[in-house]
Design a protein that fits this description.
elongated; 329 residues; 15 helices; four-stranded mixed beta sheet; alpha+beta; 11% strand; single chain; 2 domains
Length: 329
């Protein structure tokens, strides 16, 4: 008896699903008729949008943007029309054919519209307009959020943040004096603004002069900026000029701080060498990567005339190897 009831419920559920899918298909089949599409759009499109477009000619776009998992629930129809200035515009129509509304449909509509717009990202052309419409023929009252912003924890803030102009931090238009007033943050902004200079040593000289006192703030924060600036510069400065860079650092920092920073740079070389070894995927390659990283770090410290014992403690290289490296420089 219970088995029969379960089977009947399954049959009813399948029948409802078939009817829903057929209802979906019905709307789509009708909306492929030009007369029906024009009538529907004439009635439901926003007045301001209709004033911009010419509905006398519409074309059905064949490409679908609905996710595979939703194709049983939603059927999308995309019409392209021309504006009165002969520019392209789109009308995006979906039908919801289930008895329950989709809470996330406003999110998915945005996703589908962005995919549609992505097709038009060529050169610097203007994007077409899109007017999303959703037809719901479920059996219960429609209660899903009608716009993307209502899905956020703070709708008005979300709308403001995501629809107004994005905040632009235009370093190139900022005077250096304004940047320097920002103290610690100014170090980052100054370096990024002038990072395209051909002569990096000249940049370092100017930078250390302009931020001589502010460097103490960076020191209190563990040299979070200087360490990264040196790491970046190391790849830009030719090998024969690196000693000049290191001399600049030594002239502007205490010996202890110079040693700490150089140890950090050495660690980054070792880490990079280790990661390159991992990419090779074999133990031998990894060891070679570590060795190469340590030797590069050691070479840079040797050029700065740092103590051999200190370099050995940082890199783990024996004194004998360090002596050979020094002789080859």
């Amino acid at each position: 008896m219970q088995k029969n009831i379960k089977n009947q419920k399954k049959l009813i559920k399948k029948r409802k699903l078939r009817l829903a899918i057929k209802s979906d298909a019905l709307f789509k089949r009708i909306m492929q008729e030009e007369v029906a599409a024009k009538e529907f759009l004439e009635y439901y499109l926003p007045k301001e949008f209709k004033e911009l477009i010419d509905l006398s000619k519409i074309r059905i776009e064949k490409e679908s943007f609905v996710e595979e998992g939703l194709k049983r629930r939603l059927s999308d129809i995309i019409y392209s029309v021309k504006t009165k200035e002969n520019e392209e515009a789109f009308v995006y129509v979906l039908i919801e054919s289930q008895s329950t509304a989709d809470y996330w449909i406003s999110f998915r509509l945005w996703k589908y519209m962005l995919l549609l717009l992505e097709r038009h990202m060529k050169d610097k052309n203007r994007l077409p307009l899109i007017a999303p419409l959703l037809v719901y023929n479920g059996t219960k009252k429609y209660d899903s959020p009608r716009n993307l912003w209502d899905l956020f924890i703070a709708p008005e803030q979300a709308r403001k943040l995501m629809t107004e102009d994005y905040r632009l931090v235009d370093l190139q238009s900022m005077p250096d004096d304004e940047i320097k007033k920002k103290q610690h943050l100014g170090m980052l902004e100054y370096f990024l603004k002038h990072i395209h200079q051909r002569d990096m040593l000249k940049l370092w000289g100017e930078f250390l002069e302009e931020f001589k006192e502010v460097v103490l703030i960076d020191k209190a924060n563990g040299y979070i900026y200087l360490k990264q600036f040196i790491w970046y510069t190391d790849a830009k400065v030719p090998e024969k000029r690196k000693q000049l860079l290191e001399q600049l650092i030594k002239d502007n920092l205490s010996k202890e701080d110079t040693d700490n920073i150089m140890r950090t740079i050495a660690d980054s070389y070792i880490e990079e060498g280790f990661n390159k070894g991992l990419v090779r995927g074999i133990e031998k390659g990894r060891e070679e990567g570590i060795q190469a990283g340590m030797e590069k770090a050691a070479s840079n410290m040797l050029k700065s005339n740092l103590d051999l014992k200190f370099i050995s403690s940082v890199t783990g290289l024996p004194i004998e190897i360090l002596q050979k490296l020094k002789a080859s420089l």
